[in-house]
Structures are given as C-alpha cells and as structure tokens.
Design a protein that fits this description.
Layout (H helix, E strand, L loop, with lengths): L16 H21 L7 H24 L3 H23 L13 H16 L3 H24 L6 H28 L6
Helix pairs in contact: 1-2, 2-3, 3-6, 4-5, 5-6
Length: 190
C-alpha cells in the first residue's frame, strides 16, 4: 500500500470512525424500527444478515482506506467512493436499477465496481491514480446506461436520475483525490 500521504502533523487517528460505525448501526436498526410501525417494511433474518454484511464490508473498506492516509481530503474521497459503491449495490439488490432486481442487465453495475476496484489496485491507492480510477468508474457508470438504452432494455427517467447521481458521486470522489494529491505535492513540484 502507499505510504502515509497525510499532512495533518502525523496524527493517524480517525475522528470519523465512531460516526461511520454509528451510522452503520443506525442503518441496520432502521428497518427493524420501521417494521414496528408499518406493514410496508417486511425484512427476514436473511435480509438483516445480508444488509449487515454489506455494512460491515463498507465500513471495513473505509477503515482500510482511512489507514492509507491521514489526509482529510483523501479520507473524504475514499468515504464518498465507498458510500457510492454501497448505495449502488444496495439499490441494485433491493429494487434493481434497470427494471426489477431480477433483471440480468443489472449485473452490468457489478462491472462498474470492478472498474473502480481494479483501478484502485493499479493505482496502489495513491491519490493521483485514485482520481483517474474514479473518473474511469464514472465513465463506466455512464456506459452502462448507454448500453441499456442502445439494447432497448429499458429507459426511464429514474434510470437517468440514478446515473447522474452515481456519476456525480464518482466524480466528487475523484475531485477530492485530486485535492489530496495536490496537498501532498510540495509547492513548485510537478
């Protein structure tokens, strides 16, 4: 992994850790509370296990990314990317982005995540490379919709809206990684 790319005076602690894990616990409890007040939310123990595993994977991934750098912009970029990936998987499993959750076209969104993961590994988690990887992820996200529309799988405004949302998330993350790279680069260096 890349060396510490931070600029916070050597402080390696992550003050966001309690908020990240607390938010995950709150999200996991939310459907349980909702089930007490409405019949519209019906989760099985399996649903809770899958969601809990997803939250554990997302929070664990964020923890690993936060250990790479103490730079605030880097951690924020990593957090935005993890959140975007989590939401992409969650929406896809829950209701599907293209049609229903059973539509095989939704598997293309797994390719979006693969682009980001492979890009991050190639970049060895360095901020400049991570910015490029997230731009590639945004392009892959947009291409999924282009392929879906070209194949006349389904077109609706929700699909376009979700695509804009995810592309924006990937690009925000890329921008934050660029900021982290600039903060790391000494003044006057290229």
């Amino acid at each position: 992994m890349a060396a510490n790319t931070g600029n916070s005076g050597g402080r390696r602690g992550n003050r966001w850790r309690p908020a990240v894990w607390g938010a995950a616990a709150g999200l996991l409890l939310l459907p349980l509370v909702a089930m007490q007040f409405t019949g519209d939310v019906v989760w099985t123990p399996f649903d809770f296990m899958v969601f809990g595993a997803m939250l554990l994977a997302a929070c664990g991934t964020y923890e690993l990314g936060a250990r790479v750098s103490s730079n605030t912009a880097y951690r924020a970029a990593f957090g935005v990317a993890v959140a975007a990936g989590f939401i992409l998987v969650w929406v896809n499993l829950a209701v599907g982005i293209i049609g229903t959750e059973n539509n095989p076209a939704n598997l293309m969104f797994g390719g979006v995540l693969v682009v980001g993961i492979i890009g991050a590994l190639i970049a060895r988690f360095r901020p400049h490379g991570m910015a490029r990887a997230l731009i590639a992820t945004a392009v892959a996200q947009a291409l999924v919709v282009v392929i879906a529309v070209a194949a006349v799988i389904e077109f609706d405004f929700a699909l376009v809206g979700l695509t804009v949302f995810f592309v924006a998330m990937w690009l925000i993350s890329a921008g934050l990684f660029r900021k982290a790279a600039r903060e790391r680069t000494p003044a006057g260096a290229l």
